[in-house]
Amino acid sequence: MTEPRPPSGRTFLVVVDETEEMQAALRYACLRARNTGGRVALLRVIEPAEFQHFAMIGELMSEEAREEAEQLLQRLAAEVNDVSGQLPILYVREGLTRDELLTLIEEEPSISILVLGAGTGPDGPGPLVSALTGKYVNKLRIPITIVPGTLSDDDIGELG
């Protein structure tokens, strides 16, 4: 693997979830960051717990979700560092994924490209890709790169 380029100030944001297509988006973002002197940022959004009848139970569920999110981000941070040559910027937010993503992009001027993975199932590319390429596209101030979830690591390596 080649050495990372000097810093360019470009930040590639990846929304972290448990899907296979997220892995394709993450690999692509890491390679692009490495090859352009950019950096990767990871966003994990914790959606509100549906069980809100008892405050203590809802609070416990929220704490557990945050712990899981932080563990996932730490695991992925090591992967990002291995591929891109830099530790990523990590964000954990609570709320609806689309809303928190749009808010983060507005709040963080350093984020320059959003990298999303497109789902491969019969339901289409996924709700976030559908929303951000449709109704909410005008709410973005940065370009979106959509990585097909069917791409192999080798395919992505040729693109990155």
Descriptive account of the structure:
This protein is an alpha/beta fold. The chain has a single domain, classed as 3-Layer(aba) Sandwich (Rossmann fold). It is built from five helices and five strands. A five-stranded parallel beta sheet has the order 3-2-1-4-5, with helices on both faces. Strand 4, helix 4 and strand 5 form a beta-alpha-beta unit. Helix 1 (20-36) crosses helix 2. The mean pLDDT is 89.
Characteristics of this structure?
160 residues, 5 strands, globular
- Tell me, rounded to a whole number, the average pLDDT: 89
Q: What is the strand content?
A: 15-25%
CATH class: Alpha Beta
Tally of helical segments: 5
Q: Oligomeric status of the shown chains?
A: single chain
What class would the helix/strand composition place it in?
alpha/beta
Tally the beta strands. 5
Give a quick rundown of the structure.
With 160 residues, the chain is an alpha/beta fold. It is 44% helix and 20% strand.
Topology overview:
Blueprint: E1 11-15, H1 20-36, E2 39-46, H2 55-84, E3 89-94, H3 97-107, E4 111-118, H4 127-132, E5 144-148, H5 153-159
Parallel strand pairs: 1-2, 1-4, 2-3, 4-5
